[in-house]
Specification:
Elements: E1 7-9, H1 18-23, H2 34-43, E2 57-59, H3 80-94, H4 97-101, E3 106-110, H5 122-128, E4 138-141, E5 156-158, H6 165-173, E6 183-188, H7 198-202, H8 207-215, E7 221-224, H9 232-235, E8 238-244, H10 253-259, E9 263-267, H11 281-284, E10 286-287, H12 296-305, H13 308-315, H14 318-324, H15 335-359
Parallel strand pairs: 1-2, 2-3, 3-4, 4-5, 6-7, 6-8, 8-9, 9-10
């Protein structure tokens, strides 16, 4: 099914991966946990080989997003580069395969804000760039844009953020029995209104602030700045789910909305969405330019009066939910499956390029 493609999964010391999960179970369930899910799915996948000599790709299982800050509880990436560098040093001494290709057939996961630049703030991510030792490798990253950006100037696959499949099922089970969506436009999350702090001045490029100022208190807009553990139960009651950019363009709301049948309203200029080759995003979502958020109500009303039913019908195709969720073990058509499809395409492209060179 993957044209005989084989992947060798390195057995690194637990200090690079499983020790982080033991230290905090949240490591395997938060929005950056794709690095954990992909690793675990590959261990029992049909493409895994125990013979590195026959491998087309080598997967390097390093969990860099599990170092939770004690001050704010968010992942700290300050250790990411040194941890990855240490893993590469370990591989280059213990195995011949990294040195054989300088890592060009090796696959890493970078499941946080600015992906392969390993920093949560864009200016610092750009300044530090992609680590030199990873520039020839393939990066699976949630960050993706349709314009030139230093943090994706490496061979990569844009992947969805991690949403626990069981949390989706729980939200569906608790949805209204009549399936009624009584919330018209929904957003819950960080929205800053104070221009004196860094978030108020820079966060979301002011988009979330503009939404709150314009539509806060409006009857048809359910906007809430406070955290709520059961917020997915609100998504299943909503018609439109606003997905504005945060520090980075992407957001877990993209996946949560789509798999729970709420129309994602993507407000992040130039964003590249995951698996765009197979997930028909234009048919299941709306895209609103950042400069047009003040016209959001009119835009949503127009869609509601024209093609809303068609979008909702497309959203309910089982393939959509399957493609955006990670399962362990892997299931046919799920997120890890789509990643393997993308790697198979890259393998075909590499073979084609080699044949062209040999024929010249």
């Amino acid at each position: 099914m993957f044209s005989g493609m084989k992947i060798y999964v390195y057995d690194l010391p637990a200090s690079y991966n499983e020790d982080w999960v033991k230290a905090s179970e949240r490591c395997a369930t938060h929005l950056f946990a794709a690095e954990v899910a992909i690793h675990r799915a590959l261990l029992s996948s049909v493409v895994r080989t125990l013979d590195p000599e026959e491998a087309d790709f080598f997967f390097v299982p390093v969990y860099v997003s599990c170092n939770f800050s004690t001050s704010n509880g968010f992942p700290s990436l300050s250790h990411a580069r040194s941890l990855l560098s240490s893993a590469v040093d370990f591989l280059s001494v213990r195995h011949p395969f990294w040195n054989r290709t300088q890592g060009s057939d090796h696959v890493f996961v970078a499941s946080h804000d600015f992906g392969a630049c390993f920093h949560a703030m864009e200016d610092m991510a750009i300044e530090e760039g992609i680590p030199e030792f990873m520039k020839k490798s393939i990066i699976l990253q949630t960050f993706g844009v349709n314009y030139k950006h230093p943090c994706q100037e490496v061979e990569h696959v844009v992947i969805p953020p991690y949403i626990p499949p069981e949390s989706v099922e729980r939200a569906v089970e608790r949805s209204p029995a009549n399936g009624r969506r009584d919330i018209w436009a929904f957003f819950r999350g960080k929205m800053e209104v104070n221009p004196k702090n860094i978030s108020g001045r820079f966060y979301s490029k002011g988009v979330r602030t503009a939404i709150l100022k314009k539509y806060g208190g409006r009857r048809r807009f359910y906007l809430n700045r406070h955290r709520f553990a059961g917020y997915r139960s609100e998504i299943v009651r909503s018609v439109f789910c606003l997905c504005p950019l945060g520090w980075a363009p992407w957001s877990p709301r993209l996946v949560e909305s789509a798999v729970l049948g709420c129309v994602p309203v993507v407000i992040a200029d130039g964003i590249k969405l995951p698996f765009s080759e197979t997930v028909r995003w234009p048919e299941i979502s709306l895209t609103v330019a950042e400069k047009d958020v003040r016209n959001l109500r009119k835009i949503l009303e127009h869609v509601a009066a024209t093609n809303l039913s068609a979008i909702q019908r497309n959203l309910h195709e089982p393939e959509i939910k399957r493609s955006l969720l990670y399962n362990v073990p892997m299931k046919e058509g799920d997120a890890t499956w789509r990643i393997l499809e993308a790697l198979r395409r890259k393998l075909g492209e590499r073979s084609y390029r080699r044949s062209r060179v040999l024929s010249q």
